[in-house]
Design brief:
Blueprint (H helix, E strand, L loop, with lengths): L8 H14 L3 E3 L2 H6 L13 E4 L3 H14 L3 E4 L14 E4 L7 E5 L4 E4 L5 H8 L4 E2 L12 H7 L6 H4 L6 E7 L5 E5 L2 H5 L9 H21 L23 H5 L8 E8 L1 E2 L3 E9 L2 H6 L1 H4 L6 E6 H10 L14 E9 L2 H17 L3 E5 L2 H12 L1 H6 L21 H15 L6 E3 L4 E3 L9 H20 L18 H5 L1 H14 L45 H5 L18 H6 L6 H11 L12 H7 L7 H5 L6 H12 L7 H7 L1 H10 L1 H7 L4 H10 L15 H4 L10 E3 L3 H5 L2 H13 L4 E2 L9 H4 L4 H19 L5 E2 L3 H14 L4 H9 E2 L1 H7 L12 E5 L2 H5 L3 H10 L3 E4 L18 H17 L6 E4 L2 H9 L8 H9 L1
Parallel strand pairs: 2-4, 3-4, 18-19, 18-20, 20-21, 22-23, 22-24
Antiparallel strand pairs: 1-2, 5-6, 6-10, 7-11, 8-9, 8-10, 12-14, 12-15, 13-14, 13-16, 16-17
Length: 956
């Protein structure tokens, strides 16, 4: 590889120093960043020389200039979600997603937008929405993929059926070549050729391109498949006279093998106001595919499909299971979307489609409600999460996941690939863009053995032969990269492959732009991330059981397949620190990949004392947002606790770890003398000195102890009695007894006999943040001892604090997997709302017409408890709404650390504080998490009340 010439540390560090000297953006050549950027979302792994994040277009040009002077190859990268290996290479990775993120203008009259390459697609769509227009192509990663990445890959998505591929929506591109030429390409090229100075604007390049187009025109017309989803190869067809010699569009899909894009002018499409979704069920997915041509006679916005293998894997994984109730009978389904600006017209189109499909034998459900439509789309979007790691099976991988054929031949294609699976012993689910003949799958390839890799290659070659025979494209969406680049000769023949080489050479005569991808591609079975050469270095056994991952931390972190959902910033929780820093190192993906690299030991040390990993985990809030929102259920909170437990083994932790991690024991002491404790910890000289010595933020007031602890003030039953137990967690006991007392009162109001343990115990929630897992195990064993008399009798345990409830259900069974009592306690632990629903609670009074907004604790989201809160409020007469308010940013001890205080406040300012401020006066604000309420109080926001304190008013 060309990058090998610079892999010697001295050369690489000299390049890094020069880039840092001449760039205003970020330059990362440390081993941790190189490990993080060594993979994208594909099967491939190639360690880069380093990473450069240009601050603007001038910086981008400077990156290329410095790399050219050093002879270093480069690769452009957007969100890093490439599935064919085109965003990883032994080059300088130019990350355009960090700073080049401006929407430069939207012209609603011309229906155009000017953007920088790092603009996230959904951000552009949001900017266009007020004008009733949108950027049409929308891949599944629309909430975090970048426009530059879409241009590099020629992305498509669900609505390419009516809006076209990215190539169809590009007007102009501003590009930079490796040799320093800057060109603005597109409809303006013809004008430039009349300019006497056009040679200085890259005229030689354009002349070469025109010459290529003229010499290969007839072959292009003959051999380019006339199908909707031809993404493989360069878009040389855009250079034909009948296409207007559109050089900009010829570069779409070139995967940074020719140029880097610094600006794009895009065409926007109308976005129908009213949409309807017709869900069609068939006996199997192959029968569904056969019906696609007939359905395309209707005016469709999208036509997606999936099979019963996918829905079965969703059920096994517990992923969006409730949404499956929307499906009509069948074992293969199509989602046909229609729309119009007039509601009546949209409804008429949907009813016509439904009637026609029903007459052809489909079972039909027509969805008009937007919430139900979104639920149906979630099924389709569950493809990656459900199929990548099927419960009880081997991981599935991409490799042959996005070929495309003409829709009329789709059923034949799917059946022939199914038969090929049978020959090779592979299996998979089908899901994807049926309306354009591009259907995705992931298969159980074995990359770990040489025999498995040989079998994989044979299968891919046979599958490629089938597609070519059917007149299809090797890639219908994900591009060629390394996965399909070497197969292009099968599809186009040697002459057009030669034309591809000439096209690249016209732009990149030095061969330094993303070498080994698409053109002169490295073998499709080389550089496999988990190939036969992959090694895992066994460090000391984990403290967590990692029961779902065979007891292996490596298997657990390998859940990350690089899809990048943790880079989403518009909704949800994951990942709070990335939303502030926009640094890949602080994403769930970056941290998981780095942990995996640590266990490999090639780029970053295979050691529990790994500083790269420690630094990356420092801003992890342990919010467990990833455990709920990552499609493959990566749980960084657990991985961080595991790592820190080994990192600090045999040595002292910093002072703040003891001051904040041992809060349960400090609170136990303070609650006995609350007035004295509050006096000592107040805002005065002694209190401020204590904070400084403990490494605690001076701007954070210490939570005040309640005048009387809940455990001491509660009227509780004797040990061994009661129909329900209320667990007096540390936060409720010492700081917020009103929440626990209200919980008891609500339960008593429905006739429950409530027991409150008199013995002190704590689940040790703060301990996990600092990896104090030995002490956590002992604390949890004490909890089991306290609760066992009730639990053995099957008595439910209601836990007022969401973070403690999450420990009971998650960390407890994982840390004490060898104690059979742990699973029993975890199974009987409930929130108040979950218990009320379980016993069929109905309120004594109702707040008809009242409105309640709920901010759920991140850990409650992780265990799926927020739905019960909403259901109970609705029974009480409230119109309840879940706030999309993200993470509060305090996250237990995180915001109290002096060096984290500023980040904590930035996280709160992102969505938490604005969401609270938007709650109308007179509406109830419910906030059950102690951390959330504390953060709100610290930052001068409304803290709301606990659910129990609200429900007691309708329970009397």
């Amino acid at each position: 590889m060309l990058g090998m010439v610079l892999l010697l540390r001295g050369s690489r560090q000299a390049l890094a120093a020069e880039l840092r000297r001449r760039l205003r953006g970020d330059v990362w050549f440390d081993d941790g960043r190189r490990a993080i950027y060594a993979t994208d979302s594909s099967n491939y792994r190639q360690v880069p020389l380093g990473v450069a994040c240009p601050a603007d277009e001038e910086d981008l040009a400077e990156v290329l200039l410095v790399c050219r002077e050093a002879g270093a190859p480069v690769t452009g990268r957007g969100a890093g979600t490439s599935l064919a290996g085109q965003a990883c290479n032994e080059t300088v990775i130019v990350d355009l997603s960090r700073h080049l993120t401006k929407i430069l203008g939207v012209d609603p009259d011309a229906r155009t937008a000017r953007v920088q390459p790092g603009v996230v697609l959904d951000d552009l769509r949001a900017a266009c929405q007020p004008y009733g227009i949108t950027f049409g192509p929308d891949p599944a990663t629309h909430a975090w993929c970048t426009i530059g990445g879409m241009i590099g890959n020629n992305s498509c998505g669900t609505h390419a059926l009516y809006a076209g591929k990215t190539v169809d929506n590009v007007i102009d591109l501003t590009v930079h070549t490796y040799r320093g030429t800057r060109l603005r390409l597109g409809e303006s090229v013809a004008r430039w050729q009349g300019d006497p100075g056009w040679q200085s604007h890259g005229g030689e390049i354009l002349a070469d391109i025109r010459n290529i187009a003229e010499r290969y025109a007839e072959l292009i017309r003959q051999r380019y498949p006339a199908i909707p989803r031809r993404v493989s190869g360069y878009n040389l067809d855009e250079l034909l006279p009948e296409r207007g010699f559109n050089v900009a569009r010829s570069l779409v899909g070139s995967e940074s093998t020719c140029v880097l894009v610094s600006e794009a002018t895009l065409a926007l499409a109308p976005s129908p106001v009213h949409r309807r979704l017709v869900v069609l069920g068939y006996r199997d997915i192959y029968a569904a595919a056969d019906q696609v041509p007939a359905l395309l006679d209707h005016e469709l916005l999208g036509l997606e499909g999936f099979d019963s293998v996918l829905t079965g894997q969703m059920r096994a994984a517990g992923l969006n299971v409730a949404d499956l109730d929307l499906l009509p009978p069948g074992a293969g389904w199509l989602l046909a979307e229609v729309g119009a600006d007039d509601a009546g017209e949209a409804q008429a189109r949907a009813e016509s489609l439904a009637a026609a499909a029903g007459a052809d034998g489909a079972s039909v459900v027509l969805l008009t409600d937007r919430a139900r439509q979104r639920a149906a789309w979630r099924i389709r979007e569950s493809g990656l999460g459900a199929t990548s790691r099927p419960r009880g099976g081997q991981p599935n991988h991409e490799g042959w996941e996005d070929a495309a054929v003409a829709p009329a031949r789709l059923g034949e294609y799917l059946r022939r690939i199914r038969d090929l699976w049978g020959e090779y012993g592979y299996s998979g689910a089908w899901y994807g863009h049926f309306g354009q003949g591009c259907v995705h799958t992931r298969n159980n390839f074995d990359f770990s053995s040489a025999r498995g890799v040989t079998k994989f290659r044979s299968y891919i070659e046979h599958a490629a032969d089938i597609v070519v025979e059917l007149g299809g494209s090797l890639s219908g969406e994900h591009g060629d990269g390394q996965a399909r680049g070497e197969l292009l000769g099968k599809m186009y023949g040697p002459e057009l492959v030669q034309a591809f080489g000439e096209f690249k050479a016209a732009w990149d005569p030095d061969g330094r732009m993303n070498p080994g991808k698409l053109v002169d591609a490295r073998p499709l079975d080389a550089d496999l991330h988990y190939g036969p050469a992959h090694r895992v270095i066994d460090l000391s056994p984990p403290a967590f059981a990692f029961a779902k991952d065979g007891g292996s931390l490596h298997t657990a972190v390998s859940r990350c397949v690089g899809v990048g959902a943790c880079r989403r910033t518009d909704t949800g929780v994951m990942c709070p620190s990335f939303r502030v820093t926009r640094d890949e190192k602080h994403s769930t993906r970056g941290r998981a990949k780095l942990l995996g690299e640590m266990l490999q030991g090639e780029v970053t040390p295979a050691s529990w004392r790994n500083k790269d990993v420690f630094d990356a985990l420092d801003l992890c809030l342990s919010c467990k947002g990833c455990a709920a929102e990552c499609p493959t259920r990566v749980d960084l909170a657990a991985y961080k606790a595991e790592f820190l437990s080994h990192y600090y083994q045999g040595r002292l932790r910093p002072a703040f770890a003891y001051a904040l991690g041992l809060v349960p024991w400090l609170a136990r002491a303070g609650s006995r003398v609350p007035r004295l404790a509050n006096a000592l910890l107040g805002d005065h000289g002694v209190g401020r000195l204590g904070k400084r010595l403990a490494g605690v933020s001076a701007t954070r007031p210490v939570p005040r102890f309640a005048p009387a602890a809940f455990r001491r003030s509660a009227v509780h039953a004797r040990q061994g009695t009661g129909s329900v137990v209320v667990w007096p967690d540390t936060f409720s006991d010492a700081f917020w007894p009103g929440r626990a007392s209200a919980t008891v009162a609500v339960l008593q109001s429905i006739g429950e006999s409530v027991a409150v343990p008199s013995r002190w115990g704590c689940c040790g929630r703060p301990l996990y943040d600092f990896g104090m897992l030995g002490l956590a195990r002992r604390a949890l064993s004490g909890v089991l001892d306290i609760l066992w008399p009730w639990v053995a009798a099957g008595v439910p345990v209601v836990v007022p604090e969401p973070s403690c409830l999450a420990v009971f259900r998650d960390e407890l069974p994982e840390l004490l997997a060898d104690d059979p009592r742990a699973a029993r306690v975890g199974g009987l632990a409930r929130s108040l709302s979950e218990h009320l629903l379980a016993v069929g609670w109905s309120p004594g009074g109702a707040r008809a017409g009242a409105v309640a907004f709920v901010h759920p604790h991140c850990h409650l989201r992780a265990i799926g408890g927020q739905a019960a809160d909403l259901a109970v409020l609705e029974r009480a007469g409230y119109r309840a709404e879940l706030l999309d308010s993200g993470c509060c940013g305090l996250a237990g001890s995180f915001g109290f650390r002096r060096e984290h205080d500023a980040v904590s406040r930035q996280i709160a300012a992102d969505r938490f504080l604005p969401a609270i401020a938007a709650v109308p006066d007179g509406a109830e604000l419910i906030m059950d998490g102690f951390s959330c309420a504390t953060q709100a109080a610290h930052l001068g926001a409304r803290a709301g009340r606990s659910l129990a304190e609200v429900l007691i008013e309708v329970s009397r």
